[in-house]
Amino acid sequence: MANRTLVIGVGDYGPGSELDSHPTITASALQYGAVLRQDSSLGPDGCRVLSGEEVATTNAVMDALEQAAAGTGPKDRLMVVYVGHGMHWKDLPTKEVHFAVGTSEASKPWKWLSSSYFYHVMRKAGAGLKVLIADCCYSDLLPALGGGVEDSAARLEVLGEPQSGTCVFAALKGGGSGHFAPADGCAALPPAFSACTPFSGHLLHLLQTGTTANVEHFTIGQLREAVKHSMKTCRTDHPMPKMVLNDANENIPIFPNRMEHGRRIEDVAPQGPAAWIDALKFGRATRLPELLRDEGMAGDVVALLRARRDPECSELARLVEAEASRTYRNSETFVRFLSRAAHRRGRPV
């Protein structure tokens, strides 16, 4: 196994760059290294944190990325973490997001690193699972890494799928929150993580402390929901992150759960559609078979998801419907599911 992680944190810039240097960026990169190196699946040389001259130029960063990608195979994971300034110039013909390097200048896009170069190298890598974590402004504009079909139904084939595909976990969801990713640390976090940027601080705190859910590993979907919950319930207001999957199964284990076993809480069956929705958002595919044992409840869950009228709930509704169509072979059972799913559709919640 050749799991590889490359951490790129660009917190300092040359004179005349007109880019603000942020110690939280450098602290985030170092903390990613400290936390991720605890993952035994990486091996002693599996996590590399770039610094100094290694992040000074686009060539230096891309050379390091190519080295990380080299030698990975279908059973391996390639993860790239970028923390720094991000920029998007509307007048450029390709309109992609650009990442800053140490020699970047605010008004000169040709001195920035195009995200399309990142995507090119990661797409060519042999790793089965490819993950990009982007903590920067305009990260909400990053597209799916896979470069293929982005339709939810196409990428959410859940049960029994291989542990492969691509994932982009971005600090920004976009929409009303805009394109600005704050760099000042979150004072609500413990000192080691409050010195990081807010998104990276919350993410790293979760990876270091774990979750009370009775699981041995965070799955991709669980990690997203845990970070969103941590930032949403924080006493400091934060923009919400987003995740874009392409072919990747949300149920793929990605990081170990470091919570002590004695502090984990045994799963109990959710009571009612709203509780089931909360459970599915965190557990996704792990809870689907349990839900589908009751076709009426499954239908009520879909109806409530549709009534909430937001993209995330609509995507989750399609996931339940897709798995229901595979599970309910008896036509009467499937009709009961469909009847309940349609019963409350459109009712405000």
From TrEMBL:
Top-level taxon of the source organism: Bacteria
Gene3D superfamilies in UniProt: 3.40.50.1460
Name under which the protein is recorded: Caspase family protein
